[in-house]
Specification:
Blueprint (H helix, E strand, L loop, with lengths): L2 E5 H15 L3 E5 L15 H5 L4 E3 L4 H13 L3 E5 L10 H8 L2 H4 L9 E6 L14 H5 L5 E4 L3 H13 L4 E6 L6 E5 L14 E4 L4 E5 L3 H13 L5 E5 L2 E3 L3 H11 L2 E8 L4 H13 L8 E5 L10 H4 L3 H11 L3
Parallel strand pairs: 2-3, 2-4, 4-5, 5-7, 6-7, 10-11, 10-13, 13-14
Antiparallel strand pairs: 1-8, 6-12, 9-11
Helix pairs in contact: 1-7, 3-4, 8-12, 9-10
């Protein structure tokens, strides 16, 4: 094992570098990804080492970035598109939803589009409007897309490589406020030893309540579980990692054992991805549930100015309040 202590951002950079070394058809493209190395420096040094033909600074045109990637994929390349901030993906939604997601079915499987769309997601960095969105539900609702979300450096390193190797288009969410979190990463582990791309992970075992989270809220749930343990409650924290397809067996296995479940995400609760989780769990675990599945998320408002975002985002207290409410039935 060759363990290196990396930030999540550096782990993504290392994963991209490894994928580009292994396959000359892997391209990186986006606004400022080349000379600047991306606004979060995720692509730092890649253009210097792989050249401007493989690390491409694009115009400020998200629809054009994804549309061009679709054409490149049809010619045998594996493009990795960076959307600079989550709220900037909406101009590209037409290309993603009507072309990228549909081409496989439209061609009866004859055409493959191995395109990865990287999206820094979520809040917590004090940014202005359109820079702190959580648009995952738009894409999990779109058949034909794989949707994943990393939450820690080790997963970032492996999941970006697995996504690039996928024959299907992948929407890859990166929790921007966790870019600077550090952890050990085994950079030499064989791919066969990696966790499956679409498998959930139990990141903290527990007995009394299951907490389901992904991306930026996994760390917050772990903090809530640690606080609950001081009061004698044992919370199991599951990092979903993949939103579509969903590792429903891992989820129901945990909830059937604990009997209680709280779903946590930064997107607004109304029609958020947590609603799908709550419905699935209720269908499959109905006779084992001790209380309704509860959801903790953002408010049904546009993302607020930075000085108010701490009130908008789920925090330890709101998660623990939901845990308390699961014991009220």
């Amino acid at each position: 094992m060759t363990a290196e202590t990396l930030t999540l951002g550096k782990a993504l950079n290392a994963g991209l570098r490894k994928a580009m070394e292994d396959d000359p058809k892997v391209l990186v493209m986006g606004e400022d990804v080349g000379k600047l190395g991306g606004v979060f420096r995720i692509t730092d040094g890649l253009q210097k080492d792989f050249g401007e033909e493989r690390v491409i600074d694009t115009p400020l045109a998200e629809s054009g970035i994804v549309g061009t990637a679709i054409g490149l994929a049809l010619r045998g390349y594996r493009p990795v598109c960076e959307i600079q901030f989550d709220g900037f993906v909406f101009p590209a939604a037409d290309q993603i939803i009507t072309q990228l997601a549909k081409m496989g079915m439209r061609s009866l499987g004859a055409l493959s589009l191995p395109v990865v769309v990287r999206i820094p997601c979520g809040g917590g960095i004090g940014a202005v409007e359109h820079h702190s969105e959580s648009p995952e539900a738009y894409f999990t609702h779109t058949a034909g897309l794989r949707v994943v979300a990393c939450s820690n450096p080790a997963d970032a390193f492996t999941m970006i490589q697995q996504s690039i190797a996928s024959p299907d288009p992948v929407i890859f969410f990166e929790p921007k406020r966790r870019y600077w979190d550090k952890a050990e990463v085994d950079v030499d582990a064989a791919p066969g030893a990696w966790a499956p791309l679409h498998g959930a992970k139990v990141v903290r075992p527990g007995e009394h309540v299951t907490l389901l989270a992904y991306g930026p809220q996994v760390k917050t749930c772990l903090e809530a579980a640690a606080a609950a343990a001081e009061e004698g409650r044992s919370l199991e924290v599951i990092d979903l990692r993949s939103l579509n397809p969903l590792d429903i067996d891992a989820i129901t296995g945990s909830v059937n054992r604990t009997g209680r479940c709280v779903v946590v995400h930064e997107a607004p609760v109304f029609s958020g991805f947590g609603a799908e989780l709550a419905a699935r769990i209720t269908e499959k675990c109905f006779y084992r549930l001790e209380s309704p599945v509860l959801r903790v998320g953002g408010l049904s408002t546009p993302y607020p100015p930075s000085r108010l975002e701490d009130h908008y985002l789920p925090d330890l207290d709101r998660i623990l309040d939901a845990v308390d409410r699961t014991f009220a039935w």
